[in-house]
């Protein structure tokens, strides 16, 4: 009964966020998918004999970095250095998030020069995430964290991102 209420609440907020046309929220959900794909496909592709192994390792590192970018409360929970915490705080703007996702997508796609692998899927989702964050910045939408993931959802009164 209690689990059903929680699931119904999560579904209603998730689908409500999808109807919001807030590209920042779309990007955050794609970012979570990017994290999963980067880590999972990075591990799977570590078993190649070509230079794809190097890009697989880079993709795993990208996934771990994205965890701290998308879920900043983890920098307070996990023991990280002040420099790393300062580095991840740079990405509070939609434009900077779009830039880092685009760079990560480019690095992931470069691995496909040596062999076409499943890393292409991670690159595509990273690209889509970067585009969504960029569209949010262009539309003047402030970064808004998903209420389903513990954020403010569409109720964020923060000003729009500046360049």
UniProtKB/TrEMBL annotation:
UniProt keyword annotation of Membrane present: yes
Recorded GO CC terms: Golgi membrane
Gene Ontology biological-process entries: vesicle-mediated transport
Membrane spanning stretches: 21-44, 50-74, 95-114
Functional description taken from the UniProt entry: Golgi membrane protein involved in vesicular trafficking.
Family matches, as PANTHER family: CALCIUM CHANNEL FLOWER HOMOLOG
Listed name of the protein: Membrane protein
Source species: Schizosaccharomyces cryophilus (strain OY26 / ATCC MYA-4695 / CBS 11777 / NBRC 106824 / NRRL Y48691) (Fission yeast)
